[in-house]
Amino acid sequence: MTQPTRIVLSSDHAAIPLRQAVARHVESLGYEVxxxxxxxxxxxxxxxxxxxxxxxxxxxxxxxxxxxxxTGQGIMMAANKVKGIRCGVCSxxxxxxxxxxxxDANILSLGARVVGEGLALEIVEAFLxxxxxxxxxxxxxxxxxxxxx
Length: 149
Ligand code: RB5
Fold this sequence. Notes:
The protein has helices at residues 16-28, 46-58, 73-79, 93-101, 117-128, 136-148; strands at residues 6-11, 32-35, 64-69, 87-89, 107-111. Helix content is 45%, strand content 16%. By secondary structure, it is an alpha/beta fold. Strands 2-1-3-5-4 form a five-stranded parallel sheet, with helices on both faces. Helix 1 (16-28) packs across helix 5, helix 2 crosses helix 3 (73-79) and helix 4 (93-101) packs parallel to helix 5 (117-128). It contains six helices and five strands. It has a single domain, classed as 3-Layer(aba) Sandwich (Ribose 5-phosphate Isomerase B, Chain: A). It binds D-ribose.
């Protein structure tokens, strides 16, 4: 039996209910969810949560990640500082497909104050259900990696 793909989830305080809804949905799709919190609603700092999820992906412990804050922007910026991470904020399903297909994104970021739960879950499905196309897009992703190196 093959192991389910591990997906790491994290957020700041602004996105806890949406993160928990995403976790339930991702699990229902057959993935293994590694939800690294936080659980309690006190104000916290999105860079720490973005970095923590990014390290799980960069280390290979989890194949992909989904991170959330109020806008999705701050936590995305933090995650993208970790070597090997390509994270995009999506508020629509087309972008969620394209960041996988063309950019080989390994983390999706969502804004809990931007998208409602129904749309967020569709964005998550679009992201997880799309493979990287490679080819000319591989050349471009290699160029991103070269900047990082
Ligand atoms: C927290 O108030 C808010 O600034 C944070 O969730 C996020 O939107 C930052 O980018």
